Prior knowledge:
By secondary structure, the protein is mainly alpha-helical. The protein has a single domain (5-188), classed as Transmembrane di-heme cytochromes, Chain C (Fumarate Reductase Cytochrome B subunit). It contains 7 helices and 2 strands; from the N terminus they run E-H-H-H-H-H-H-H-E. It has a two-stranded antiparallel ribbon with strand order 1-2. The two termini are 33 Å apart. Protoporphyrin IX containing FE binds next to helix 1, helix 5, helix 6 and helix 7.
Amino acid sequence: MNNQQYTKVWDPFIRFFHWTLVIAFVLAYFTEDDFMTLHTWAGYTVLGLLVARIVWGLIGSRHARFSDFVFSPSTIIAYLKDTLYLRAKRYLGHNPAGGAMVLLMILSLLITSLSGLVVYAVEDGAGPLANWVTQVGHDEAEIFEEVHEFFANLSVLLVLLHIAGVLVESMVHRENLVRTMINGKKRLSNDKITKE
Ligand code: HEM
């Protein structure tokens, strides 16, 4: 009999945000040159989701708030060291390293989608910035294109590290964190730690 107690950790918005972001990001990444309409709409979706997530990070539910998962660099380093020795503490919300990764992913995806808007305006004269960037020269346009590509690839790297972190954390604490991001629930236990 399973008499474990569970508590709600990820609210419905966070779960919707997460899985829609995964789909939109994958679509945007793989439609780069060949399917521009799909690429642009996937990019708009990523940007819209990020803006909504940033607002939710200020006013949302407890574990969705930035104040719940922004930790000092020394706490993040100590957490990573503890993870190496397989003795990292369990957190109900994002752990210190996971929280830092969330911030890095949000920032990298934000730069990717915003620079994409500029490239779209310069090269195709389209999108919301089309009327603003008519003055951009060829060299500057190339810089934005490189920024766009660099941060898209950096985002992929961060996502791979993120997935590795989720798997390691799931093993260390013997829980299925992927399922948690689907049903929003996490096991309550005596060793639970929540940031006060
Ligand atoms: C299919 C592969 C993926 C899996 C299995 C996965 C799983 C997870 C899990 C379990 C969490 C919660 C971590 C925790 O307990 O602290 C999480 C959070 C997060 N993931 Fe993923 N993830 C995947 C792909 C992605 C991708 C592709 C992105 C970005 C494009 C992404 C961005 C995020 C973000 C931003 C959060 C923080 C959620 C929030 O607080 O709003 N993930 N992910």
